Amino acid sequence: MANFLQLMVSGLGIGAVYALVALGFVLIYRAANVVNFAQGQIAMVGAYLMIVAAVDLHLNIWLAFIVALGGMAIFGVLFELGVYYPLRNQSFLPVIISTIAASILLQNLAQYVFGANPRSLPALFATQTVKLGGIVLSVQYLTILAVTAIFVAFQYLVLDRSMLGKKMEATAQDKDTARLLGVPVAFMIAFTFVYSSILGGAAGILVGPIFFVMPGMGTTIALKAFAASIIGGFGNTVGAIVGGLAIGVIETLGAAYISEPYKDAYAFVLLILFLFLRPKGIFGEKIAEKA
Amino acid sequence: MTSRKRLLSFIGVLAAGLLVTACGTSGSGGNGTSSSASSNGTSSSSGGNTPYEIGATFALSGAGAASGQLEVDGAQLAVNEINAKGGVNGHPLKLIVEDDQTTNPGTVNAFSKLVSQYPNLVAIIGPIRSTEVQAITPNIEQAGIPVLIGGTDPQLTHENDPWVFRFRPNDTYSARTMAYYLIKKLNLSKIAIVHSTDAFGNGGDTYLKQWIAHYGGTVVSDQGYTNHATDYTSIVTALKNANPQAVATYCTYGADAGIFLKQYNQFGLKATIMGSSSITSSDVRNLLGSQLNGDYGTTDYAYGQNSESVTFGKALEAAYPNVKPDIYSSHTWDAVRVLAHVLAADGTSHTAVQQGLLNVRNFPGAEGMYNFDKNGDGLHGYTVVKFAGSTPKIIKVFNFYNQSSSGS
Fold this sequence. Notes:
The complex is a heterodimer.
Chain A: H1 2-32, H2 39-56, H3 61-84, H4 92-114, E1 129-132, E2 135-138, H5 139-159, H6 163-173, H7 175-180, H8 185-211, H9 217-232, H10 237-257, H11 263-277
Chain B: H1 2-26, E1 52-58, H2 65-84, E2 93-99, H3 104-117, E3 121-125, H4 130-143, E4 147-149, E5 164-166, H5 171-185, E6 190-196, H6 199-214, E7 218-225, H7 233-242, E8 246-250, H8 254-266, E9 272-275, H9 282-288, E10 296-299, H10 307-319, H11 327-346, H12 350-358, E11 363-364, E12 369-370, E13 381-388, E14 391-399
Parallel strand pairs in B: 1-2, 1-3, 3-4, 4-5, 6-7, 6-8, 8-9, 9-10
Antiparallel strand pairs in B: 10-13, 11-12, 13-14
């Protein structure tokens, strides 16, 4: 039982990282009607910004966290202007190719700027583990869960209930009508990119102390997060979170009780099952309401 | 207007793609050393003669990019040293590096490109990862060119391919050294194994189990993981349940070993660690620092294991101030020097190099004394080190070639 609880915390922790990245996928898909395949690399950028702030500039760890997230907001604007905005009137295909190009470009730029050697990122808390009876829990995983909970709470309690959230929803449902009603659609899409970049950056910063930070760290996260968003129901924010947590838990428990070498396969077996049996995902595709 | 926008978009994507390609193939890796098609022609007396071209497939991008740059550094250092002394019989050496992208298809492409575009290559320095060597085995046979590999899966030189020569000791020696030292010297017989599930890791796992049984030990847990795994909670939990006295690791990538050991320490496990050579790589030492204190490792390169290891280490640190000498840079330094010796003594045709390499005896390298056997294995021993802080200290050098070791 102790082992099971320990595994559950790790699974939920890693799942929360997938959830944050998946949420970024979904929000951008809803706002701009494109899939941003650079979402994993955005997490990597966040982790490197944290390295610069906390390690290279020796800022206090919490100040570095805020500075890195602020940097991600600026990065989100630049990303939107460079990757999406010039192609905003095209069909989704050129934009998707543009995001794929951006993902490769970001990974290679990171290697060019920071080198290929993995780097250590300090955790937000100095204590590494806490013991509860016979269970050893990683403080970093608990931190990931807490920060993810804060982001999710912000999503539902603030963003979805505010005028800003309603404008985001209107933009997601029908851009032309929203524009006629006075919603600044271009601004709302830019805001979505900024918010998604912050979410992705937070995921990278949180997972950095566990994985180490390296240029290729975003690829695996993005693949799992993409699978999570489809399993949850592409376009559905609740689905992205539930899908991410589900994949984290299933792969961790599967690795422990079935087979570790096939750990990466569990997420994709689940994805294939969903595509065959319930292509709309657990919560359905909210974006379908557009029609 | 729309067509203009489309054109601009196309140009933008094309430019991004070209930049990516440039980053991927030249791979300067952040420390400014030259790589692709580089020679640095530093020879003073050999400038007039045609250079002898040595090809190389190194990982300059992808998951192994950190190690690939170290391989370039080692090889380029040897080339520069030899050219500074006048080259080989008056001919400077020229290193031509292709990026294998740390993938099997990338390695096949890099190897094919070298063979097709550079017809005068005297030899090719091949990958350090066994799975990538496996991928190009048919191409090597077809090309008929000596390939100097660093992959340590024993099978790579035991499949009747006369063109493959190994410049690191194979895994039967490392597994034997690890099992012997844990069981016979440290009296730890309940051993768990953690290994990657590629050719290197699975091979190491197989030989480790054989030698643990040979020396009277027991494998209490055998845990495999796929390369680039990011969470080892399930493995650490299994190890905790198995309660081993020692954990032997065969990790292909240093970063994987680093993440595993970090989580192992975080969860408070105390069994003695005995790592295969990746535990001594600069990656792991930089990442874990003093967390390695008290752990053991087997390695083919340890500073001070012989006089050449010191010569190499000092020269590398002088040439590349932020680079620590390790297994990645040492085996390519050795490969270029052994090859230069053979080129000078036996000639430059592929057959002459092949026969010359087979006849190499008692050539002192940073990794050990090179004595090639009929299979093409040049080295036959490993060094056991124990970490004091993040520095590996030599405990004992085993050489199975001369049968003089106490490890039999």
